[in-house]
């Protein structure tokens, strides 16, 4: 018995195109649409499962909705002389009304209930002429943007500012210059005051140190005088006793 016709609409229908370079992961999208009034179960299979990562690779598409499937080609060394033999198959079936276990439904599905669509993979490398053309286009656009941006200020100033606005801008500039001059003078005065206070504190500290030294010298002189006085008194007392 022939299988029923696929109810899902695929975009693209027949080919999955992957555009290089292939030194990194290359992703293409597959859109699955369900135009029916019933939910549809789907699975995405490939002949080269180690070369691709598919997300999601299975699920349920509600009635009247669609889903995008990302197909990611893993990095590999591209050979332009080698034709791709990789293929994908989208398998689907109408979901039972009381479905609870999707894996169980797939296992119990009859062959005449399954629908499938096949797509082949196509690898494309950017043409060198296209690369050169894109680079030249980017250079031309960037140079045009630079020239337009350099010419824009002069045009906008001459066309949008009248004499009154120019005068206001000049007065504002003058006021800002005077304010900057005043701040510089205040800063200079603050530095001079700080220097004066530092010199004054140094003088006071030196005077305090000299006073302390004088007091210490006076104390040492009095100590020597007392020692001599006690010595003389001791000598006199000794003679009187003898």
The first-to-last residue Cα distance is 157 Å
The overall pLDDT, averaged over residues, is: 79
Q: Per DSSP, what share of the residues sits in E-state strands of 2 or more residues?
A: 15-25%
Helical stretch count?
Answer: 3
SSE string: EEEEEEEEHEHH
In which order are the strands of the major sheet placed? 2-9-8-4-6
Give a quick account of the main beta sheet: strands, pairing sense, barrel closure. Answer: 5 strands, mixed
Blueprint of the fold:
Layout: E1 9-11, E2 15-19, E3 26-33, E4 40-46, E5 52-55, E6 58-61, E7 66-73, E8 87-94, H1 102-108, E9 115-124, H2 128-160, H3 163-241
Parallel strand pairs: 2-9
Antiparallel strand pairs: 1-3, 3-7, 4-6, 4-8, 5-7, 8-9
Please give a handful of descriptors for the protein shown.
single chain; 242 residues; alpha+beta; five-stranded mixed β-sheet; four-stranded antiparallel β-sheet
Descriptive notes:
The chain is of the alpha+beta class. The protein has helices spanning 102-108, 128-160, 163-241, and strands at residues 9-11, 15-19, 26-33, 40-46, 52-55, 58-61, 66-73, 87-94, 115-124. The strands form two sheets. The protein has a five-stranded mixed sheet, with no helix packed on it. The protein has a four-stranded antiparallel sheet with strand order 1-3-7-5, with no helix packed on it. It is elongated and about 150 Å long. The model is unreliable at 129-134 and 151-160 (pLDDT under 50).
